[in-house]
Every structure is written in structure tokens, then in C-alpha cells.
Amino acid sequence: MSQNADEEQEYEERREELVEHISAVRDLDEDVLDAIRSVPRHEFLPEDEHDRAYVDMPIPIGSGQTVSAPHIVAIMADLPDLEAGEDVLEVGTGCGYHAAVTAELVGAEHVYTVEYESDLVESARENLADAGYGDVSVRHGDGREGWPEYAPFDAAYLTCAVPEFPDPLIEQVREGGRLLGPVGVAGQELILAEKRDDELDEEHHGEVQFVRIQG
């Protein structure tokens, strides 16, 4: 077996160990665990961080940003109950890892993601394409404005904290659609909201700590 093949097998084994760790502490849908199992997180990280790719922790990706710990990505992929073919908006592309996990659930062509940092936009596009998720749509812009050209979305989520869900995101989610993200100023809570008659029916899912939205 070649060195590259040995490395890939090792990464696969470490992903499986990560999935076992996550599933031992959180009851998640099997499709979500399969998505974590499938996405090569190391391919979305700086090369000097590959050794830590399958440790359940956030990792710096440049521009003052981090990629969330895998268990947080898994929880956020599980809460909206995403189904294949649903159109999903992500605010905060980062390195592209979370978008790839979402793509495993709904299909890459159904994922639309917006990133404020221009350097991260280019690297995310490259990461996604190299990992086989090139059909994910990535845009440089202010995520608080969403992506109206592709609305309405079945779900939208933020990988960065906001004081409250931005009005444009609420408007761009269809009736019955879901919004998810870390919300708060002094402290943050992970909130899942369902849109009903232009109002949000909220569920609170515990305290979290995310980088605040840029711009």
C-alpha cells in the first residue's frame, strides 16, 4: 500500500473514531453521523493542522476565524432535520467543512453559502472542489443580507454569532422553514426557529461560543 493510501486509511479510521466519540455523547440521526464519517475534514484545514483534524475541537483556519468542533457541526446538521433536495443557506463559509457536511445531507447543488472574508472565499471554493463538493455555491458578501437570488430556502443556519436573526434571513426562509444559529450579545444560545406566519417559533439548545459575525 502506498504512503498516500496508508494516510487516507488512517484518516478514515480516525474519522470513524470521531463518529464513535460523537455518537457516544449525543443521540444524532444516522444520516448526520454518516455525513461526518464521509467528509475528509483534514482537506479543509491548513496542512500544519492535519494531525488535529479528527480531534473534537475548533481549529484556526486563518483570517481570525476557526472551524467549529465536529460535535457542534454534527449537532447543527441534526437539529434542522434536513432532507435530500432541500435548499439550504449557510452564513459563514469559513473553510467550507460545514457546507460539505450539509451537502452530504441535501446534495451539493442545494447548498448556498456566504462568506465575508475574501481570502476564505477562494480557499473554501478550492477546498470544496478538491473534496468533491464543487457544486456548492459560494459567494463573497455580508451574510446578514443572505442570498436573495436563490430564495426561498428550506433552511438557513449561521456559523457565527448574531444579536438576533437578521430580517433578510427570516424573509428568505420559506413558510415552515427553519433557522438555526448562535444568538445573543453578552452570552450566546444555539437557537432553532421555525417560521410560521412570518413569526419565529424558537427552541433553545444550550449555551455556545462562536466567533461573532463580521462586517
From TrEMBL:
<dbReference type="Pfam" id="PF01135">
    <property type="entry name" value="PCMT"/>
</dbReference>
<dbReference type="GO" id="GO:0004719">
    <property type="term" value="F:protein-L-isoaspartate (D-aspartate) O-methyltransferase activity"/>
</dbReference>
<keyword id="KW-0808">Transferase</keyword>
<comment type="function">
    <text>Catalyzes the methyl esterification of L-isoaspartyl residues in peptides and proteins that result from spontaneous decomposition of normal L-aspartyl and L-asparaginyl residues. It plays a role in the repair and/or degradation of damaged proteins.</text>
</comment>
<dbReference type="GO" id="GO:0030091">
    <property type="term" value="P:protein repair"/>
</dbReference>
<dbReference type="GO" id="GO:0032259">
    <property type="term" value="P:methylation"/>
</dbReference>
<comment type="similarity">
    <text>Belongs to the methyltransferase superfamily. L-isoaspartyl/D-aspartyl protein methyltransferase family.</text>
</comment>
<protein>
    <recommendedName>
        <fullName>Protein-L-isoaspartate O-methyltransferase</fullName>
        <ecNumber>2.1.1.77</ecNumber>
    </recommendedName>
</protein>
<dbReference type="GO" id="GO:0005737">
    <property type="term" value="C:cytoplasm"/>
</dbReference>
<dbReference type="InterPro" id="IPR000682">
    <property type="entry name" value="PCMT"/>
</dbReference>
<feature type="active site">
    <location>
        <position position="68"/>
    </location>
</feature>
<keyword id="KW-0489">Methyltransferase</keyword>
<keyword id="KW-0949">S-adenosyl-L-methionine</keyword>
<dbReference type="InterPro" id="IPR029063">
    <property type="entry name" value="SAM-dependent_MTases_sf"/>
</dbReference>
<keyword id="KW-0963">Cytoplasm</keyword>
